[in-house]
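To assess whether ligand presence alters the predicted conformation, the chain was also submitted together with glutamic acid. Input:
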Amino acid sequence: MSAKVRVRYAPSPTGHLHIGGARTAWFNYLLARGNDGKFIVRFEDTDQTRHIESGIGNQLDGLKWLGIDWDESVDVGGDYGPYRQMERIPLYKPYIEQLKQKGVLYSCYCSEKELEEERAAQEARGEMPRYSGKCRNLTAEQEEALRAEGREPVLRFRVPENEVIRFTDQVRGDMEFDTNGIGDFIVVRPDGIPMYNFAVTLDDHLMEISHVIRGEEHLSNTPRQIMIYNALGWEAPKFAHLSLILNTDRKKMSKRDESIVQFIEQYRDLGYLPEAVTNFITLLGWSPGGEEEIFSKQELIEQFSLDRVAKSPAVFDMDKLNWMNNHYFKKAELEDIVNLALPHLQRAGKLPEELDEETRKWAVMLIGLYQEQMRYAAEIVELADLFFKDELEFAGEAKAIIEEEHVPVVLQSFLQHIENNEEFTADGIKGFLKQVQKDTGHKGKALFMPIRVALTGQTHGPDLNVTAYLLGKEKVVQRIKKVLS
Ligand code: GLU
């Protein structure tokens, strides 16, 4: 990439970091880090009705957790600040004046109700609703009269007629918009606060943004922004619009969609690894070209480019994310998985807040037992539930196995070996099982299944010797006796 790369993520701080916003931030970040560029986080907080003060901290915390760092923002400063729009209002003023002077912006006095009626009438005629341009050419006297009625004007942008706005989207290719399809849009509200399209254009220019990478939902805003660049005699940055994210049913993902974990904070709380989440969201739109799906952050920084970002929508597949996180879990250090999983067992009341050394050792082994299987850390509570239960229930396949004719012989023999030995270790248990095989002549499934089911209530699970060891002699004896009775 030639000229210097300066990219930004510009959320409205209305809540927590959403997975869609995270993808936008991540793609910007990858482009910056891969091209010796700068990554900027800027807050679009001019819609004060939707703004919540904690929103800024929530966004930054989410980014940090994902492993994203930034060169300029509200906390670290930078040469192009301030980094929240409400603090930039004075910077916008001269440009508003300049465009008013040029007649590009004009005052519109139409009330909400009048605009509503206008829209309804257009729709009734089967027309695309857009501002009619009623206030485009008011005389000074007319304006005064409207003001005298107590009306407070907005400023609208005078959209040129019969023009075609063209740009080359870095993802979608050549784009064209006919200005006749675009009504004069509001750029400044009566309180003097600019609307999104205006503020974003000024910010992107003043911050020398080279690439605007954002969601597809902003595509129709881009011609409006280009008209503002043109009116100010500025060169527009490059634009790249990332396609929609669909849910597994291939419907547009909504924030109410319960089949998808929506917010980065939730991923953190459920015990996903940030490396897995960023690996996964990269593939929501970007493709590496080959079959490989697992990429380290460094590899992504090196390989990411906009020309491999897909035009077609990305499908969010929670199963795939879980598969990927499991992949990272398997490779992780046990201690890291323990740090993630242990608090879940404690919060669920399975283990005390304060652990003595012995209990801690036990918990580490237990979590280790499930490291291969766990898709995310919170899952440990469900997976390991059988260790904390007083009674097991046997259903389905497990029930059928436990009722097989040879089961009492196997269990009796196993019990005997346990009771005749002082030692109760995972290795020792392995020895007992060998003995049971000799004593009873049952081997393989016929040997292990009854014992596994009697001890766990399940037909599948991790290492049986370690499972039995972690259950402890007392529970093992009790569970076997229970089945035998
Ligand atoms: N505040 C806008 C959003 O959150 C930013 C759009 C843009 O990047 O231009 O969608």
